[in-house]
């Protein structure tokens, strides 16, 4: 034995070196061995050096090409090794090491070349590539020499070695070319100026490094190993994930998509065609989608190698079995030679030599001529069963790699598509007309669904987008191959598959229609849920939980009916998926004996079965694709309709104005020429402005114009003298009539930051530092007619509007409720439909807007005031003082760092309004529009805000102010007055001219003013601002004002901030405090709790809750049916294999018998194989199995639908009955996420995923069972793979579940931000803050997309590994079953059946994990819903039991407080201490006190909205704790400060039960002055009320709430500043009505105007949660030392 073998002339070179193959083979070893030694040395030395960690992750030119062809080279070399061993086995005399040793060394060298190259890239040291270049250059000629040697020795192309050698040569040439090209391009050696490879700039900021890693790492997702390891050690949080690469970030993909969308939209407008949304997204994402399609195509082609290999392996097994039987005949058996149908797999063998394989032998032929080499031919090589098993392994690995890369590409593109849709929806939401929402054409719930459900549906479309061509291609190839094997019967069976297409289409069409109905009904339900959550406080106070639950459940019931119909379609889809391949195989094999002449062959039968199984997966995915496409199509239509919806007209300096500008830019001066059209004439004015960034300027051009000294204006009669103080002309002023010119003064230039040259710290001196000539009007409306309807033909709200708003003046707009004041402001802001006329605005004007209903962000108080502007300490402090916010900030636990709850729920109405005003003051706007902000403020606070904020900070600094107000006492301060009546301008001009032009109007004002003046000194001062030297702030143990529940929120904070007693010092110095204390305060200031996120696996308790919701018996019955039908279908395949085997054996024996006994008498007898017994059994099993499949899936969907119904009911019931505090600490978006996304997941995704998961598990178990039955040794090999499978999944799920939870948690902020934005659209657009809000939205969307992308990527990480495990299972199954068969322990038929099922396992293993991950993600929705289901509910029981109440209780209205103390939560301090008093029946009691004194807490305790921690409250001798909550609240009436209306009709809002006759409804409306307004509506009582009651003014909504109270007719009535938003005249009327209509009833009023409670029976004064005084107003006023007297007199100062 030697390296070259023991043959003659093995080492002889007599005939030449080239003809000595051993010498050439040794020569081939040399370059490989040298490279191995050199590369190993460098790697070891370099890795120990200081440069080892200097990884840069650069990619040299040709990186992917090098890796691809190197991997192909490795596969070829492995094939050479296998061929070498086979060739060596043909030589019985010796072992020829030179045949297989060189390729082994070449394999090591090739692998090392990749390792070496990878490290060179990490080191970014391209000079080392010279070693690889030298390696390729040396190995190539020697490999060519090897090819020549083979040719010289007579080896032909029929031999495998020849092909392998020249393929090696081609690959080495390609790799050498890549290396030379890299040297040419990068010039890293032999050139003077090398071109360095730059490190990617985004490395380090992102953990998503897919495009930066090497080719193999991309293919195997190896780059995620470290990420998963970190997640396994420590659960991930959002901040650990880093950022996504720029090309995946929302802003990047949004810009590309928006550009294409607008381009296509413009083309469609020109051509008159409809927008093709498919064309838009394909234009944006086509590149990676095409690459994914190419990968999918090759993966689909490779999958058909499996059935081909199965047939060849079976034929090989039969050949070997028959060969063994022929050489070793058994007793009684017939000896025969030749095997039909398998001749192509048989090698010509003789008995001269054999290779032992266990306890059996494979006979191989030995060449007789020793001069002929023993290299195997291609036929011999690829007919060997074990080689075929290896081919199957390699090709399944390739197939799975291609598919996984396809999945990854489409998933990343799908995620980009989703965030693009979300960004487009948000951007559209910023610009959509408010009329679209208010009209009910589109609701906030629908827009939220566009952001969540529709965006997700469009994303899922990308997942399956390539199946539109992949499935037909797979079906066609499968049918062609089946025809080649089984003839026409295969086409008949295959036609069943083809015919299922139209059937799926009709089922899909029905499902599409049903899906539309489901989504429409879901929108209605979500809308109702949203309204219930938004108005939950009113619902609880009115005890309307039952009615709202019934209403929502009625909507849910209709939704469930449609879901059931949808489930029927889904069941049909699933049944088609299971039945089509099964029916196809049944038809094929039942018809085959009748239609085909040749008998049923095992190889053909089982390979055909494998082909039908291949068709099963595409048909399943095609089903998913159709389902997804149908759903996406519905969503697409909805999205297009939304994206093309009407947008708001915008401010008039947009295209609708006639004012325009021509800009001329110089170095740092920008000249604008303003062209205005007035009365048909053109006027031109010029302005010069320093071209600084707007964000750093005090104002824009409009601001400069507004600072003109009053006496410099033309036609400015009637201006106030004090507004002109401190103004002076600059000597450098150039006067132009009607022109505006701003020139910086040369003095103090270093302190100026603005275009006007004004420092933010010296605004009072603005007139001294600037010289301005101003334009005449900031706004002008000419012949305007405006409507609140999108259709211009509908009724207009404003008519004949001709209004001019002067620059730098105070313009007041007054009028009664519903007169059109807010409409006029909305028309100016472009929020209404312009029917005729136009609005002109001075170009560049910057606007600040204070809405009538204050809108606040869910952020800190400070952030709400800054509103994106840079912080300036002096400016900020002045604004705080002007808006009387020092006392409020002093009482806040974290000062101005206190978090404001959603919609300001933890603040009183007055506090919210003052923060809203402070935002406008702090802004750098030159025009401020205030829509009745003073109504929510008490007299003293209102006066302070008006004088300090509006007059001093705005008007005197020449900022244009438009003030809508009911406070007529302030109209004397106006420069210009506009009176509205019935949607028209009743009067405009100066106050002094009203008497002459409108004497009746003047008289009505004079009367109202007299009453206002009389009451001004007797207003409640509970929001009085105090100077720094006043007494310390009130105890803030219940956080902010206790008014907050009634006005929209309750309280959170318990910490009393005693160190903040001197507010002025704190306001000036808070930035210099100890950082640690600041951190503590920040924590204390948080209101909204961070959303709870479970850690670890979804607990078994959650699964138990879902099973309980389904019903235990239903689950058991469903699982029995699932197991049963899979057993039947597996049994049918075993019967098929036995049928085919017996048929083959019969035909083989029959052929031999006919050959042996052809001369016998019996030759006339025809022997026929009986197919009927097998056929009937096979047919019966399949029919029963399919019937069981249909019933099993029907039961499954019914069971899950039952769970959906139960979970939603329990969720809704719990949310309606949790304490009110829950809504203060949880934003509505978070709650709505449960009712929308989570419920949708439980309704639709979970049943679908559960069915798929169960089916995949059952198929996998069936496959393992079939393999174990045929080859028990298979289990030994499978056991370690099973352990590996479990470990991989366990390792994977530790990170996956946390990422899924992060993804779920980060959804809520996206929806909350959208909801918040839609609520404050008018304010955002007025401030022109759209860009900032859009940027915030994009950040939130990215935060949600980051965990999603990682979840999908690690799914691919696991998927590729499970696919590889599946490929190993196929290989193990092939080798073990083949070896067992050759050993005589099983049949070739079972070998084929085992392989057929094993091929399915490799596919279904991946689907199991995918479905398991999806199911856990969806179970996360169950977990989140279950979390809310188990929230603590309001206490509605008492240990002594409930009182038995009379029907008319309370019939007197007596209220007793006995040592009552109140807390908002168990861990908070008391907000009311030991209150003890009695209110007699029929008494009218007024409650007053400063902010935080406990007024609202006291009244809310009557409704048990606050926990009574000590004492008892008795109403008509009944302890309220022992009265059921619903009954207690229904027996009391309350009118909250913030009115709430619900979508529906006027009748529904007054009487949701529908029990009150129309006469009483009209009487109530007449009482509250609303009858006339409602009677004018087309449908009167059945007129539509839009979402949030937006089609009514705030004043009208407050009147609705009054009407509710009248209709309830309770003995006890609570009023909390119920007439705040009503004009004085209407208020006076209502006060008279209250005094008469509620005569004999107990009335408790939290005073807004003390003039109203001066006539009450008694007044209660609260201070610091203690009742200080309780007596008649007259008695308290007589006592000069009483607190009440001091409150009254303090307003006179």
| Class per helix and strand makeup | alpha/beta
Average pLDDT metric = 76
Fraction of residues in helices? 55-70%
Distance between the termini: 120 Å
Tally of alpha and pi helices: 52
Based on DSSP secondary structure assignment, what is the total number of beta strands?
A: 28
* Rg over CA atoms: 42 Å
Runs with pLDDT <50, length 5+?
330-372, 654-774, 1015-1085
Shape: elongated
Task: Strand order, main sheet: write it out.
Answer: 12-13-14-10-15-16
Notes on the protein architecture:
- The chain has 1693 residues and is of the alpha/beta class.
- The chain has 52 helices and 28 strands.
- The chain has a six-stranded mixed β-sheet, sandwiched between helices.
- The longest helix has 53 residues, at 1330-1382.
- The radius of gyration is 42 Å and the shape is elongated.
- The termini are far apart.
Salient structural properties:
single chain; 1693 residues; alpha/beta; 6-stranded mixed beta sheet; 52 helices; elongated
């Amino acid at each position: 034995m030697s390296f070259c073998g023991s043959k003659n002339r093995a080492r002889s070179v007599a005939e030449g070196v080239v003809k000595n193959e051993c010498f050439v083979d040794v020569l081939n070893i040399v370059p490989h061995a040298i490279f191995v030694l050199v590369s190993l040395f460098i790697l070891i030395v370099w890795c120990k050096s200081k440069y080892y960690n200097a990884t840069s992750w650069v990619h040299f030119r040709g990186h992917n090409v090098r890796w691809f062809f190197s991997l192909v080279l490795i596969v070829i070399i492995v094939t050479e090794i296998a061929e070498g061993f086979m060739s060596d086995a043909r030589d019985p005399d010796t072992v020829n090491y030179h045949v297989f040793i060189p390729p082994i060394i070449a394999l090591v060298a090739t692998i090392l070349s990749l390792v070496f190259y990878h490290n060179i890239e990490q080191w970014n040291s391209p000079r080392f590539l010279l070693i690889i270049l030298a390696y390729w250059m040396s190995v190539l000629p020697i490999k060519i020499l090897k090819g020549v040697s083979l040719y010289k020795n007579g080896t032909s192309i029929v031999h495998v070695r020849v092909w392998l050698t020249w393929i090696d040569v081609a690959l080495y040439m390609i790799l050498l070319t890549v290396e030379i090209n890299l040297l040419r391009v990068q010039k890293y050696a032999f050139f003077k100026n090398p071109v360095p490879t730059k490190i990617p700039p985004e490395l380090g900021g992102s953990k998503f490094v897919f495009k930066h890693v090497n080719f193999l790492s991309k293919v195997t997702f190896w780059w995620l190993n470290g990420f998963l390891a970190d997640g396994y050690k420590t659960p991930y949080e959002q901040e650990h994930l880093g950022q996504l690469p720029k090309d995946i970030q929302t802003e990047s993909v949004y810009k590309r998509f928006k550009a294409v969308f607008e381009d296509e939209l413009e083309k469609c407008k020109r051509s008159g065609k409809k927008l093709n949304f498919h064309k838009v997204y394909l234009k944006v994402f086509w590149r990676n989608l095409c690459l994914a399609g190419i990968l999918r195509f090759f993966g689909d082609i490779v999958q058909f190698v499996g059935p081909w290999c199965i047939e060849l392996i079976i034929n090989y097994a039969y050949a070997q079995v028959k060969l063994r039987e022929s050489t070793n005949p058994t007793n009684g058996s017939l000896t025969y030679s030749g095997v039909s149908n398998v001749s192509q797999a048989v090698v010509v063998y003789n008995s001269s030599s054999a290779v032992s394989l266990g306890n059996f032998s494979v006979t191989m032929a030995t060449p007789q001529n020793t001069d002929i080499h023993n290299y195997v031919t291609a036929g011999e090589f690829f007919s060997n069963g074990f080689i075929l098993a290896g081919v199957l392994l390699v090709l399944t690995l390739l197939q799975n790699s291609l598919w996984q890369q396809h999945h990854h590409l489409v998933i990343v593109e799908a995620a980009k598509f989703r965030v693009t849709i979300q960004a487009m929806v948000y951007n559209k939401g910023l610009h959509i007309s408010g009329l679209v929402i208010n009209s009910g054409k589109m609701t906030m719930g629908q827009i939220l669904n566009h952001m969540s459900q529709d965006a997700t549906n469009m994303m899922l479309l990308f997942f399956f987008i390539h199946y539109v061509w992949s499935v037909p291609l797979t079906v066609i190839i499968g049918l062609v191959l089946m025809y080649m094997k089984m003839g026409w019967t295969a086409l008949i069976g295959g036609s069943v598959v083809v015919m299922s297409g139209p059937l799926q289409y009709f089922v899909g069409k029905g499902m599409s229609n049903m899906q539309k109905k489901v989504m429409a009904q879901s929108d209605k339900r979500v809308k109702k849920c949203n309204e219930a959550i938004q108005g939950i406080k009113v619902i609880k106070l009115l005890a309307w939980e039952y009615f709202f639950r019934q209403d929502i459940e009625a909507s849910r019931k209709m939704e469930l009916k449609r879901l059931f119909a949808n489930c029927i379609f889904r069941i049909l889809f699933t049944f088609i998926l299971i039945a089509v391949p099964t029916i196809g195989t049944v038809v094929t094999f039942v018809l085959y004996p009748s239609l085909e002449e040749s008998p049923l062959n095992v190889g053909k039968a089982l390979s055909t079965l494998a082909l039908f199984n291949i068709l099963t997966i595409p048909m399943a995915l095609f089903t998913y694709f159709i389902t997804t496409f149908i759903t996406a199509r519905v969503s697409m239509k909805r999205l297009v309709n939304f994206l093309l919806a009407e947008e708001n007209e915008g401010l008039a300096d947009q295209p609708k104005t006639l004012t325009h500008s021509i800009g001329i830019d110089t170095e740092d001066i920008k000249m604008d020429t303003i062209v205005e059209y007035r009365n048909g004439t053109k006027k031109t004015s010029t302005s010069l402005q320093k071209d600084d960034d707007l964000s750093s300027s005090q104002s824009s051009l409009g601001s400069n114009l507004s600072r003109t000294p009053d006496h410099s204006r033309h036609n400015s009669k009637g201006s106030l003298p004090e507004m002109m103080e401190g103004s002076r002309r600059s000597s450098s002023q150039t006067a132009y009539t009607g022109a505006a010119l701003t020139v910086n003064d040369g003095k103090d230039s270093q302190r100026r930051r603005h275009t006007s040259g004004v420092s933010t710290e010296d605004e009072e001196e603005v007139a001294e530092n600037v010289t301005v000539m101003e334009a005449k009007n900031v706004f002008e409306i000419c012949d305007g007619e405006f409507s609140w309807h999108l259709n211009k033909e509908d009724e207009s709200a404003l008519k004949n509007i001709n209004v001019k708003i002067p620059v730098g003046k105070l313009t007041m707009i007054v009028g009664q409720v519903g007169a059109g004041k807010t409409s006029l402001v909305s028309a100016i802001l472009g929020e209404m439909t312009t029917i005729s006329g136009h609005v002109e605005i001075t170009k560049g004007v910057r606007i600040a807007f204070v809405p009538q209903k204050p809108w606040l962000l869910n952020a800190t108080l400070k952030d709400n005031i800054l509103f994106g502007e840079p912080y300036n300490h002096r400016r900020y402090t002045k604004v705080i003082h002007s808006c009387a916010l020092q006392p409020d900030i002093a009482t806040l636990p974290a000062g101005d760092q206190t978090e404001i709850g959603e919609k300001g729920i933890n603040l009183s109405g007055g506090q919210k309004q003052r923060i809203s005003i402070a935002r406008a003051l702090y802004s750098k706007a030159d025009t401020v529009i205030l829509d009745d902000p003073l109504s929510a403020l008490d007299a003293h606070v209102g006066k302070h805000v008006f004088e300090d904020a509006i007059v001093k900070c705005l008007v005197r600094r020449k900022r244009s102010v438009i003030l809508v107000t009911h406070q007529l006492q302030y109209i004397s301060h106006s420069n210009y007055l506009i009176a509205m009546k019935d949607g028209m301008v009743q009067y405009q001009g100066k106050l002094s001219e009203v008497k002459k032009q409108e004497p009746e109007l003047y008289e009505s004002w004079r009367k109202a003013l007299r009453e206002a003046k009389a009451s001004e000194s007797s207003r409640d001062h509970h929001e009085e601002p105090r100077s720094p030297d006043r007494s310390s702030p009130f105890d803030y143990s219940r956080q902010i004002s206790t008014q907050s529940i009634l006005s929209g929120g309750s309280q959170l904070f318990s910490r009393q901030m005693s160190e903040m007693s001197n507010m002025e010092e704190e306001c000036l110095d808070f930035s210099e405090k100890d950082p640690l204390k600041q951190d503590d305060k920040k924590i204390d200031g948080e209101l909204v709790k961070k959303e709870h996120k479970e850690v670890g696996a979804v607990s078994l308790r959650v699964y138990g809750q879902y099973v309980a919701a389904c019903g235990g018996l239903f689950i058991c019955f469903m699982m029995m049916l699932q197991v049963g039908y899979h057993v039947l279908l597996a049994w049918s395949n075993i019967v098929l294999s036995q049928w085919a085997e017996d048929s083959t054996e019969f035909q083989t024996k029959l052929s031999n018998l006919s050959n042996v006994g052809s001369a016998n008498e019996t030759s006339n007898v025809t022997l026929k194989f009986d197919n009927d017994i097998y056929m009937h059994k096979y047919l019966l099993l399949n029919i029963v199995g399919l019937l069981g499949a249909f019933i099993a899936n029907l039961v499954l969907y019914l069971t899950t639908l039952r769970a959906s119904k139960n979970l939603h009911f329990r969720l809704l019931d719990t949310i309606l009955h949790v304490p009110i505090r829950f809504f203060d600490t949880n934003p509505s978006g978070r709650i709505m996420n449960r009712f929308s996304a989570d419920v949708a997941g439980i309704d639709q995704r979970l049943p679908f995923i559960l069915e798929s998961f169960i089916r995949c598990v059952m198929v996998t178990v069936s496959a393992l069972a079939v393999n174990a039955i045929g080859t028990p040794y298979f289990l030994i090999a499978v056991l370690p793979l099973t352990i590996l499978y479990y470990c991989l999944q366990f390792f994977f799920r530790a990170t996956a579940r946390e990422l899924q939870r992060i993804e779920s948690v980060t959804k809520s902020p996206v929806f909350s931000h959208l909801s918040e934005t839609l609520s404050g659209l008018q304010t955002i657009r007025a401030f022109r803050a759209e860009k900032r809000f859009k940027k915030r939205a994009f950040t939130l969307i990215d935060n949600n997309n980051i965990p999603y992308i990682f979840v999908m990527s690690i799914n691919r990480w696991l998927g590729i590994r499970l696919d590889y495990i599946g490929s190993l299972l196929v290989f193990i199954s092939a080798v073990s079953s083949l070896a067992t068969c050759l050993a005589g322990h099983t049949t070739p038929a079972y070998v084929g059946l085992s392989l057929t099922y094993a091929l399915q396992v490799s596919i279904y293993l991946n689907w199991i994990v995918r479905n398991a991950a999806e199911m856990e993600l969806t179970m996360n929705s169950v977990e989140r819903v279950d979390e809310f289901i188990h929230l603590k509910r309001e206490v509605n029981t008492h240990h002594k039991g409930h009182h038995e109440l009379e029907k008319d209780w309370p019939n007197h209205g007596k209220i007793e407080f006995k040592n009552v103390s109140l807390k908002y939560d168990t861990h908070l301090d008391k907000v009311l201490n030991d209150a003890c008093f009695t209110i007699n029946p029929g008494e009218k009691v007024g409650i007053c006190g400063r902010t935080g004194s406990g007024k609202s807490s006291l009244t809310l305790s009557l409704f048990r909205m606050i926990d009574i921690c000590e004492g008892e409250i008795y109403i008509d001798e009944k302890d309220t704790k022992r009265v059921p909550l619903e009954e207690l609240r229904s027996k009391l009436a309350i009118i909250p400060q913030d009115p709430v209306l619900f979508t529906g009709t006027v009748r529904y809002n007054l009487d949701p039960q529908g029990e009150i006759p129309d006469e009483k409804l009209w009487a109530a409306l007449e009482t509250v002055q609303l009858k006339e307004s409602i009677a004018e509506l087309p449908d009167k009582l059945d007129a539509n009320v839009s979402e949030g009651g937006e089609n009514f003014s705030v004043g009208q909504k407050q009147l609705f709430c009054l009407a509710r109270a009248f209709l309830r007719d309770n003995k006890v009535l609570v009023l909390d500043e119920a007439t705040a938003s009503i004009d004085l005249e209407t208020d006076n009327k209502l006060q008279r009505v209250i005094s008469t209509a509620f005569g004999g009833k107990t009335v408790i009023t939290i005073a807004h105007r003390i003039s109203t409670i001066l006539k009450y029976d008694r007044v209660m004064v609260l201070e610091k949660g203690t009742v200080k005084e309780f007596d008649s107003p007259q008695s308290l006023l007589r006592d000069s030392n009483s607190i009440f007297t001091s409150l009254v007199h303090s307003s006179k100062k």
